[in-house]
Design a protein that fits this description.
By secondary structure, this protein is of the alpha/beta class. It has one domain: Rossmann fold. The protein has six helices and five strands. It has a five-stranded parallel β-sheet with strand order 2-1-3-4-5, with helices on both faces. Helix 4 links the parallel strand 3 and strand 4. The radius of gyration is 14 Å and the shape is flat. The protein starts with 11 loop residues before the first strand and ends in a 6-residue tail after the last helix. The C terminus is likely disordered.
């Protein structure tokens, strides 16, 4: 697995919804998470067009992933929620945006581990990926940035 530079204060992190647009269903939870990302970790979340769009097509969700990886200002990509719908398009993602600008991908649930014979996003991206919940993400960020937890 490739190693990456640690995220630092002010880095941009893409927020995408590769499977289900949870931010569109629960915007209050999403906004709270964005605020904590800014206040606690001092990162700048960057939202994409399908991040909050309920019923976004697989083409829209794929376009967001491609745009997030193609943007050199974005230092990491984080999924808003898990799910397994990405198997409908992950194998069709074009390799160059991911190979030319690799970055960490933080996902949940079925985004990183899909049923047998299905292609996961992390395998398609050939990028470092972290599977888990928001608490695990918080621990990872505190450890990588040498920060103390917010009380």
């Amino acid at each position: 697995m490739q190693s990456f530079k640690k995220l630092k204060k002010g880095d941009q992190i893409a927020i995408v919804s590769p499977s289900f647009a949870a931010p569109g269903r629960w915007p209050h939870v999403y906004e709270l998470a964005l605020q904590r990302m800014r206040d606690v970790f001092q990162l700048e979340p960057v939202e994409f067009s399908a991040t909050k769009k309920l019923g976004a097509s697989k083409e829209e969700r794929a376009a967001d992933l491609i745009a997030a990886f193609a943007n050199p200002k974005i230092k990491a990509v984080m999924a808003s929620l898990g799910g397994d719908d990405q198997v409908t398009y992950a194998r069709h993602l074009p390799p160059p945006p991911f190979q030319n600008n690799p970055k960490p991908f933080f996902g949940y649930s079925g985004l990183l581990s899909t049923p047998p014979n299905a292609q996961s996003i992390s395998a398609t991206l050939e990028s470092a990926s972290v599977d888990g919940n928001i608490e695990a993400f918080g621990l990872l960020m505190r450890n990588s940035m040498k920060m103390q937890p917010a009380i």
